[in-house]
Amino acid sequence: MTALNTALEIDLTGQGTAESLGGRFCGGVGGEAEFIRGAAASPGGRSILALPSTRDGGSASRIVPRLGPGASATFHRCDVRYVVTEYGIADLRGKSVRDRAMSLIGISHPNFRSWLVEEAKRLSLVYQDQVYHPALYREDLEAWRTTRTGLSIFLRPVRISDEPLLKEFFYSLSDKSLYRRFASARKDMPHSRIQEFVTVDLSRDVVILGLVFRDGREHLIGFAQYSRNERDRLAELAVVVRDDYQRQGVGTLLHSYMTDLARKSGIAGFTAEVLEDNLPALRLIEKMGFEAVEAEGGAKEMRLIFDN
Ligand SMILES: CC(C)(COP(=O)(O)OP(=O)(O)OC[C@H]1O[C@@H](n2cnc3c(N)ncnc32)[C@H](O)[C@@H]1OP(=O)(O)O)[C@@H](O)C(=O)NCCC(=O)NCCS
Fold first, then answer.
1. Phi and psi at residue 131, in whole multiples of 5°?
2. Which three-class secondary structure state does DSSP give residue 278?
3. How far is the CA of 228 from the centre of ligand 1 (A)?
4. What per-residue confidence (pLDDT) applies to 308?
5. Is 237 helix (H, G, I), strand (E, B) or coil?
6. Are residues 39 and 105 in the same domain?
7. Does residue 127 lie in a domain region?
8. Which SS3 state, helix, strand or coil, does residue 180 take?
9. Range of the domain at 8
10. Using an 8 Å Cβ cutoff, are 79 and 47 in contact?
11. Does some domain include residue 128?
């Protein structure tokens, strides 16, 4: 059963109203809550709430820190699954309050996002050091690709709400892969470290996630990042693939995709720093055309200049 409904306002925890704005009633008690609950209870069911991100000609956000005083709570946060605005889809099922807030901020109108982040901090719904970057999500960078082994992967830019995906990914990596990616023995991945990947400045950095869909949800199997260096029009590239998906062509695919994006945005080439004993990475990037330019302290500086 799929229940498709709307809401007048929804708060950052996912509960909302379809009856009133604050104490001002716009409708009576209807069947919305039953439909949402029925869909949630039915095997394979989905409940979808679709609403515009703003109201009153764009002057107010429909995603709000808290419902206004006197608002009628039409639906409960634990029953709502998908919330859709013109800025995307937030899947709230099974999420903590913090992740719900970040997912909903991620689909709110961009004019209200920094306000929502500040309010969420004030209400202690998100981390106090939560960073927010105003760059818009780039749908044009989304793509489906298939590896040489026939694995179908969805590639998309990182979103501000992807911290749980990245956390799960980092903690699933072997110590060896983690060490090779960061050249550091540090194994913990606290919020302060992970948020650097999800709040990137898209004018300089690009982070592309490689995802597969299983059990009705996204699984992160690898990601690539480049960071533009303004001095020489080169960008530093780093790629990492989950251990159980390595050697299936995912690294090659991420690499080629990043090369396409970099070329299109006027970058002249890539650099990469790889540990001298990291044979898989050295082989991969040599295959992609990189050459060693320097070796120092157990690491090799590799470089690829794109031809015209
Ligand atoms: C390096 C890494 C990204 C490669 O990803 P991957 O998905 O396994 O790569 P692919 O399957 O596309 O393999 C591409 C090529 O890399 C080389 N390669 C990959 N794994 C290898 C291994 N274990 N031993 C030797 N060569 C290997 C091969 O030349 C391979 O081509 P081939 O299969 O045609 O022989 C992955 O091993 C990884 O995430 N390592 C940890 C993080 C890291 O080292 N990142 C690079 C530094 S930033």
1. -90, 150
2. coil
3. 23
4. 65
5. strand
6. yes
7. no
8. helix
9. 2-122
10. yes
11. no
Q: What pLDDT is recorded for position 28?
A: 86
Q: What is the DSSP code string of 13-80?
A: TS-EESSEETTEE-S---SHHHHHHHHHHSTT-EEEEE--SEEGGGTEESEESSPPTT----B-TTT-
pLDDT of residue 27: 87
pLDDT single digits (tens) 112-161: 999 999 999 999 999 999 998 877 888 899 999 999 999 999 999 999 99
Residue 302's pLDDT is: 96
Residue 179 CA, ligand 1 centroid: distance in Å: 15
How far, in Å, from the CA of 274 to the mean position of ligand 1? 12
Contact 71, 40 (CB under 8 A): no
The Cα 291–Cα 91 span in angstroms is 43
Task: Give the strand pairing for 46-50 and 82-85.
Answer: parallel
Task: Extract the residue ranges of the chain whose pLDDT is less than 70.
Answer: 308
What is the distance between the alpha carbons of residues 305 and 192, in angstroms, rounded to a whole number? 33
Ligand 1 first shell, C-beta below 6 A: 177, 180-181, 238-241, 246-252, 274, 278-281, 283-284, 287
